[in-house]
């Protein structure tokens, strides 16, 4: 099995878990519920999609198809840094759950397409992360941590914001689903 196939399989497994263990089980009307110190499922869905879309952009792939789904929404939703914060932001109220879900799944489809055509040799190459983040409109003062964290090879962008970060938050969403009393394994 080549690396590209393995990466696509990893992403597919995570997206399947997101779809079947979260989105198909947790009703849309409760996906905004939050527990003390936590975020809602809808925030986590938006958050991972925004990070993955930004990583695609920095890696040189334009997620325009996904971005078009957000066209016409409140500017706070479409601002360059919206969704990047770990803590849920008030503007989430301006995007309906079905559109949010469609957006996230579209971004993950674009990540899948990127991974399926990934050339292993490019994984060790470090893209111009700072230039890519600046070009995407990400403020270096506010998001300095992102500039330093992502300043690595393209392989890091694949391992963390495109796959690992998504997997991590899908686990969080499953935990929230369980706290909501919606575990199918009870």
How does this model look, in words?
Helices cover 59% and strands 0% of the residues. The protein has one domain: dinb family like domain (Four Helix Bundle (Hemerythrin (Met), subunit A)), CATH 1.20.120. The relative contact order is 0.19. By secondary structure, the protein is mostly helical. It is globular, with a radius of gyration of 16 Å.
Give the overall silhouette.
globular
Give the count of helical stretches: 8
User: What's the helical proportion of residues?
Assistant: 55-70%
- Sequence of secondary-structure elements: HHHHHHHH
Oligomer state of the chains in this structure: single chain
The CATH H-level superfamily is dinb family like domain
Instruction: State mean pLDDT (0 to 100 scale).
Output: 96
The structural domain count equals 1
Uncertain residue segments: none
Radius of gyration: 16 Å
CATH topology: Four Helix Bundle (Hemerythrin (Met), subunit A)
Intertermini distance: 37 Å
Strand-residue fraction?
A: under 5%
CATH top-level class? Mainly Alpha
**Per CATH, which architecture?**
Up-down Bundle
> Largest sheet, if any?
none
Give the tally of β-strands.
0
> Which class of secondary structure composition applies to the elements?
mainly alpha
Short description:
The chain is mainly α and 186 residues long. The protein is built from eight helices and no strands.
Secondary-structure map with pairings?
Layout: H1 3-23, H2 41-58, H3 64-69, H4 75-78, H5 97-116, H6 129-135, H7 144-150, H8 154-179
InterPro entries: DinB/YfiT-like
Protein name: DinB family protein
């Amino acid at each position: 099995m080549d690396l590209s196939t393995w990466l696509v399989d990893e992403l597919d497994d995570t997206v399947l878990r997101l779809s079947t263990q979260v989105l198909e089980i947790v009703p849309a009307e409760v996906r905004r519920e939050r527990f003390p110190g936590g975020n809602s499922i809808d925030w986590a869905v938006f958050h991972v999609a925004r990070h993955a879309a930004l990583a695609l952009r920095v890696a040189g792939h334009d997620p325009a198809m996904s971005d078009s789904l957000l066209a016409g929404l409140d500017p706070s939703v479409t601002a360059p840094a919206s969704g990047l914060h770990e803590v849920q932001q008030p503007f989430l109220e301006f995007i309906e759950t079905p559109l949010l879900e469609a957006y996230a799944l579209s971004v993950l489809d674009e990540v899948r397409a990127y991974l399926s055509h990934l050339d292993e040799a490019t994984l060790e190459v470090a893209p111009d992360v700072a230039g890519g983040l600046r070009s995407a409109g990400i403020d270096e003062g506010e998001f300095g941590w992102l500039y330093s964290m992502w300043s690595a090879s393209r392989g890091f962008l694949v391992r963390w914001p495109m796959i690992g970060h998504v997997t991590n938050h899908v686990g969080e969403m499953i935990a929230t689903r369980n706290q909501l009393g919606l575990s199918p394994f009870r």
